[in-house]
Specification:
Layout: H1 11-18, E1 23-28, H2 42-57, E2 62-64, H3 87-103, E3 108-113, H4 119-132, E4 137-142, H5 147-156, H6 169-178, H7 240-263
Parallel strand pairs: 1-2, 1-3, 3-4
Helix pairs in contact: 2-6, 2-7, 3-4, 5-7, 6-7
The structure holds zinc ion.
The site of zinc ion has 6 residues, from α2.
């Protein structure tokens, strides 16, 4: 069967694809400010597109869940439009989704994250799913960590350190490729987090090749204390061409990840007591 959208299947079709050892792909994002030049739906659109285009290329290997729009963004609430879900709520909500999928027989679930601060909760979802159901595999990744994306961004980025953080070169380029009608480049401005220092270096979604990723103290102050526009980084270097290349890299990389994930053995636990 070539259907891949979970919600478009009938229940007998769900039962059929369950038996095909497909990977269930669950995109998760958030609704929050992305500078003055990008819409609040940015994370959702990017994550949704990467997962949908990936599924369109290998429809027989994937079951695609509807994108989860709402995520963990309490530190963005000073900016109008942000919708936030409490961390433990997101954790339990997403766990209930993996529990439901497992109840119906699915054994391989990959959460694809499109918003930085979701990561800590989604990693917990992936881990707890396996703790509760050892006969399954549940993994989590953020799209900007896909090796092909890191490589492609490093090849083409022109902004300096920090340019690919929030609503900056990477996200703006991708939005120019996906929905140029929703991007107003005349309002895009560089707004680097002004509290950077030796131990608090600029944060990037994707670090420039050779740059240190080490940020020793983990800390997330309210976004309005870091940025005046909501942007952290430099969106002015964004181009549609970069965006198209980076989306393509994400799809290629995700296909590779899914195909490996599909081959992992689900081994029985051994109780050594
Ligand atoms: Zn974003």
């Amino acid at each position: 069967m070539t259907k891949f959208l979970y919600v478009e299947m009938t229940w007998p079709e769900i039962n059929e694809v369950m038996k095909e050892n497909r990977v269930v792909l669950q995109p998760v994002a958030t609704i929050e400010d992305h500078g003055r030049h990008l819409p609040i739906v940015t994370d959702v659109l990017i994550t949704d597109t990467i997962c949908r285009r990936t599924a369109e290329r290998i429809p027989n290997e994937i079951v695609l869940m509807p994108t989860q729009y709402h995520g963990y963004s309490p530190h963005h609430m000073d900016f109008p439009g942000t919708i936030t879900v409490k961390g433990p709520t997101l954790l339990e909500y997403m766990l209930d989704i993996t529990r439901s999928l497992i109840h119906h027989g699915f054994r391989r679930i990959l959460l694809v994250n499109g918003h930085g601060s979701n990561a800590l909760w989604l990693e917990a979802v992936a881990r707890l799913t396996i703790v509760e159901h050892p006969d399954t595999l549940c993994g989590m990744l953020s799209w900007w960590n896909i090796p092909e994306v890191v490589e492609a961004v490093n090849k083409m980025r022109t902004g300096g350190s920090g340019s690919t953080d929030h609503a900056a070169e990477a996200e703006t380029s991708i939005m120019l490729a996906l929905r140029p009608d929703l991007v107003d480049m005349s309002l895009a401005e560089k707004d680097i987090n002004y509290q950077i220092s030796k131990y608090f270096p600029p944060v990037d979604l994707i670090y420039p090749a050779g740059a240190s990723k080490r940020v020793t103290p983990k800390m997330m102050p309210y976004w309005s204390t870091r940025s005046k526009t909501g942007t952290v980084g430099d969106p002015t270097s964004a181009t549609q061409e970069k965006g198209e290349a980076w989306i393509e890299a994400a799809i290629t990389g995700l296909i590779g990840i899914l195909r490996e994930f599909k081959t992992f053995e689900i081994r029985d636990r051994i109780d050594h007591h």
